[in-house]
Design brief:
Strand content: 5-15%
Helix content: 40-55%
Largest sheet: 5 strands, mixed
Number of strands: 10
Radius of gyration: 20 Å
Order of helices and strands: HEHHEHEHEEEHEHEHEEHHHHHHHH
Number of helices: 16
Strand order of the largest sheet: 2-1-3-10-4
Structural class: alpha/beta
Shape: globular
Length: 373
């Protein structure tokens, strides 16, 4: 019953998105400003600003001049999750968003004319955590246990079910309880109301900044190669504003490289653009904790090995990764049909988007790191 309800709610949300797309017009911010600068509306797929993609792409791009160099002005708006952000794109009230691939695939299956154009988060961000002294050592030990998830309709619930199923457990062998994130999730595990948590790595870093420690269970190989947050646009925006989107992506990926080299400097850029992140505190009071959280997000969005100066092919998603991601999305109930990659993915902008001087970006970031360190 819970599974049917979850899928039903998702279907309603995507159906609403589809109807919006059918009624939506062109982009609300497609006009160019004087001097050849183009305005792009970026829908942030979160109701709360934090040390994540809005800092790594937009804030750094604005403060370090990458957006100005590309003659792009970005205006931001917030949406309550990936489905809502895609709805903004579908309606034409936003030009681009960084949304979960599962939501993009589900929207596409319902006829919403959106396409992914560049990857962002490339490493699986979900992991299972238990208290250091827990007797739970492997996935099989979760039988008969309660697992805390963000909500029963969240990606963490889908992850927990898949994690258990991979160990040979049935849905009835585990119980999922919604616990949210942050202090609420931490207290639920501490009080023994759940036996394990299924959250994303950035959420754990936020909790660990308060002094709490966890032991993390290994993820099986099945999750390697499944993609997460990805840039997406309407198809007509891609057709009409290709050059502007290339420039937006190029600025974003330079900003990502800068962030990978000097995360503290990037986070300070984030404070300048999004002062609400400070929550009334000084930058010096918050910088250590926020930088740790930001570094955790960056680890999910950059190659798991190698040095930042060697990172290449920003935004690339291979056919194998798409196939594995689509298979997981179908298995989790977000989509019901097989996916043709060409229907949902257009990587043709990435060659131009990667055409920048990496060494110059690295040098700028290192200089900024020296200044703030």
């Amino acid at each position: 019953m819970k599974r049917s309800l979850r899928i039903g709610c998702a279907a309603i949300a995507v159906a609403t998105l589809s109807a919006t797309a059918a009624c939506g017009g062109g982009s609300a911010s497609s006009s160019k400003e004087k001097g050849g600068t183009a305005t792009i509306e970026f829908s942030i797929a979160s109701a709360v600003i934090g040390p994540k993609e809005e800092v790594a792409t937009y804030a750094v791009g604005k403060e370090e001049g990458f957006l100005d160099k590309e003659r792009i002005k970005v205006e931001t708006s917030n949406a309550d999750g990936s489905v809502a952000a895609l709805q903004a794109v579908a309606s034409g009230s936003a030009d681009i968003t960084a949304a979960d691939v599962g939501a993009i695939l589900a929207a596409r299956e319902k006829g919403v004319p959106v396409k992914a154009i560049g990857g962002l988060v490339q490493n699986w961000p979900w992991v299972m955590a238990v208290p250091p002294g827990s007797g739970i050592k492997t996935a099989a030990d979760l039988k008969g246990k309660k697992i805390g998830v963000i909500s029963l309709a969240s990606g963490s619930a889908m992850y927990a079910r898949a994690y258990a199923a991979n160990a040979g457990l049935d849905e009835k062998d585990i119980e999922l309880l919604p616990v949210g994130v942050g202090a609420q999730a931490a207290s639920t595990l501490k009080d023994g109301k759940v036996d394990a948590l299924a959250l994303y790595t950035q959420a754990y870093t936020t909790i660990e900044n308060t002094g709490t420690t966890y032991r993390y269970l290994d993820n099986p190989d099945m999750f390697q190669g499944i993609r997460s947050i990805t840039f997406a646009v309407r198809e007509d925006t891609l057709d009409k504003r290709r050059d502007e989107l290339v420039r937006f992506l190029r600025a974003s990926y330079q900003s990502m490289l800068f962030s990978a080299v000097s995360p503290e400097a990037a986070m300070r850029d984030g404070y300048k653009v999004f002062p609400q992140v400070l929550a009334g505190k000084s930058a010096d009071d918050r910088i250590a904790g926020d930088t740790k959280i930001f570094e955790t997000w960056m680890k999910s969005a950059t190659p798991s090995s190698g040095n930042p100066q060697d990172f290449a092919d920003w935004g690339a998603i291979s056919d194998q990764e798409w196939q594995k991601t689509a298979a997981y999305t179908k298995e989790s109930g977000q989509i019901t049909k097989d996916v043709r990659i060409e229907d949902v993915w257009d990587g043709s902008l990435l060659k131009e988007a990667n055409d920048f001087d990496s060494a110059a970006v690295v040098a700028r970031a290192q200089k900024a790191g020296t200044t703030t360190g």
